[in-house]
Amino acid sequence: MARPELLKHFSINLDLALEAHEAIRGQVQREIPGVAMEKLQKPHATVTIVTVLDAQGEQLMGKPPGKYITIEAPDIREGNRLVQAEIARVFADQLKSLLSLGPDATVLLVGLGNWKATPDALGPRVINSVLVTRHLFHYAPQELAGGMRPVCALAPGVLGITGIETAEIIRGVVDRVKPNAVICIDALAAGSAMRIGTTIQLADTGISPGSGLGHKRQGLNQETLGVPVIAIGIPTVCHAAVIAGEAIDKLLEQFQTSPTLYQIYKNLNPAMIQQIINEVLHPFAGNLVMTPKDIDDLISECARIVAGGLNLALHPGIPEQEAFSYLH
User: Fold this and answer.
1) What does the alpha-carbon distance between residue 80 and residue 40 come to, in Å, rounded to a whole number?
2) Domain for residue 255, yes or no?
3) What is the DSSP string of 181-211?
4) Cα 166 to chain center, whole Å?
5) Is residue 25 in some structural domain?
6) DSSP alpha helices (H): ranges in 45-80?
7) Which residue range(s) make up the domain with 189?
């Protein structure tokens, strides 16, 4: 079954712009009009910058015009602190490329997600660890090191816990605090199991919380909040239909290597494969997502990298070797 058909049949949205680009690029077998891509090799990471340039690119990609930076770093899973520090530096450099702020600009960090559900707890975990300083500028300026910026943070929870739309809470805080920029951190849904906990996306287009799992929530962007919004996300779950489709694809690849099995392969049709996946996922109405067994440790490692990178990017006065010592 072709990947675009699988995604469309199960109404799976691709949170990662890189995956959306790969899916469309593989379908049309040519460069995508209105979209530019650049790839950079960094220590322990590959950085891919996908830029949606215009309305045509937006229509094809299904994402608003803007810059989407993807950091692919499989070594995140290794738990090596030195490697994680290198990845955090790469992350910080890419975040700074999206920000255009003066040294005294106030930044609001928002940790989206449900702290009671581990795969969705990335945002709150980052907020628990990142360095916040806005209150010190008001009450204890003598405690500040040079080169620190006013940073405040909150984890507003989810609609099911608070009974309030997340966007409503954030708009209220923005109206009161009046930050120069908002940075949202959220868990994403991957279009491939291999990207869980190994990929970081940054985007200057804001975010629609829960869109990867088909949840319709109010968007958080410059249009709704009135200030620039940077979105940071790491995939923590993957749709079961995607995993099943990948497994079938691997099996069919083996069929093609055998003359006997190749005849079976030729007689298969996408509708048959689709029906098989439908039957397997029927108890969950096709709406089943998977997460690794060690997701708690993985969330902690990812939160540490993001929080350390945020410290580096937002507080230029902190020496790189000390960025992680400020984590709560």
Assistant:
1) 22
2) no
3) EEEEEEEEEESSGGGTTTEEEEESS-B-TTG
4) 18
5) yes
6) 55-61
7) 3-242+286-314
- Strand 289-290 with 35-42, pairing: unpaired
DSSP code of residue 220:
B
271 in any annotated domain = no
The CATH number that applies at residue 186 is 3.40.50.1450
- Total number of domains in the chain: 1
User: One digit per residue, pLDDT tens: the chain, 328 residues?
Assistant: 556 677 776 777 888 999 888 888 766 667 889 999 999 999 899 999 999 999 999 998 889 999 999 999 999 988 888 999 999 999 999 999 999 888 889 999 999 999 999 999 999 999 999 999 998 888 877 767 677 899 999 999 988 889 999 999 999 999 999 999 999 999 999 988 899 999 999 999 999 765 545 555 678 999 999 999 999 999 999 998 888 888 887 887 777 777 777 677 666 777 777 788 888 888 876 688 899 999 999 999 999 999 999 999 999 887 776 666 666 5
Query: What is the Cα–Cα distance from 88 to 31, expressed in whole angstroms?
Result: 31
User: Considering the domain boundaries, does residue 123 fall inside one?
Assistant: yes
Closest C-alpha among 55, 284, 95, 66 to residue 200? 95
CA gap 259, 261 in Å, rounded = 6
> C-alpha distances in angstroms, 194 versus 76, 134, 289?
12, 38, 14
Hey, what are 257's tokens? 């290597």
| The length of the chain, given as a count of residues | 328
**What span, in angstroms and rounded, lies between the C-alpha atoms of 205 and 285?**
32
Q: What b/e readout covers 191-205, taking b as 16+ CB neighbours within 10 angstroms?
A: bbbebbbbbbbbbbb
